[in-house]
Specification:
With about 230 residues, this protein is α/β, with parallel strands linked by helices. It is about 25% helix and about 25% strand. The protein has 6 helices and 9 strands. It has a 7-stranded mixed sheet.
């Protein structure tokens, strides 16, 4: 793995052995929570979460827990990131749309699995900061866009895979329309921030098949652009 930027220390200098052990425990925790796909695990080993956790929470980058980021958002729990990525079943030639860039961590992992990743967020600050990390890590197959993600990206549609990292009451119609035949969308749905389910939607010739995966808790999917 590459080193984090200088302004994102992960641990005290001289504790590389401790850091290596924390990363090993991180991967073990992913496996123990159901992330078993070898391609997903390799991608999560290649993409160091420490690059995406800033400030006072930097030393908690390898814990399996969500953490606060700017604009009142969160970086998701790594095991949930892994399970969502696993359910998405990304192929090397796929084009993926992510709604909710956040820290950029999920998009960076997807970049290791797909041909092209488009990631959209309503907060310009998050898009800008994630884009800078992508450039530092030379992740050239990610396109970042500040926009209202509830409408998707019709100019780039259709997509092989769509992932939504914020909860809506139902799968947004524009996103369903932008999913290719045979395509998969993974997203949380729920009418409150306490009762949400992660679901997998597959587009078939007959319509859409829905599979409920597990209970989750995500920030709500909000229309419009943010103020930051």
């Amino acid at each position: 793995m590459t080193r984090p930027p200088e302004d994102q220390p992960l641990t005290d200098p001289g504790s590389s052995h401790e850091l290596a052990e924390r990363k090993m425990r991180f991967l073990f925790a992913l496996r123990s929570r159901g992330v078993t796909d070898s391609r997903v695990l390799t991608a999560m080993e290649m993409i160091d979460r420490g690059h995406f956790v800033r400030g006072i929470f930097a030393d908690r980058a390898y814990e399996d827990m969500p953490l606060p980021i700017a604009c009142g958002q969160t970086i998701s729990q790594p095991s949930v990131v892994g399970l969502m990525t696993q359910a998405l079943a990304v192929n090397p030639r796929d084009t993926v749309l992510e709604i909710g860039t956040g820290s950029g961590y999920q998009a960076a992992i997807l970049s290791q699995l797909a041909r092209r990743v488009y990631t959209v967020d309503r907060y310009r600050r998050l898009v800008r900061e994630a884009g800078e990390v992508f450039r530092q890590l030379d992740l050239a197959n990610i396109t970042t866009i500040a926009a209202d993600g509830s409408f998707g990206l019709p100019d780039q549609a259709p997509f092989d895979r769509i992932i939504v990292t914020a909860a809506a009451e139902d799968p947004p119609g524009p996103l369903l329309d932008q999913l290719k035949l045979g395509g998969i969308m993974v997203l949380p749905v729920g009418q409150s921030d306490t009762v949400q389910s992660l679901i997998k939607v597959t587009r078939t010739e007959r319509g859409f098949d829905y599979e409920e995966l597990r209970p989750v808790r995500f920030v709500p999917l909000v229309e419009g652009l943010g103020s930051e």
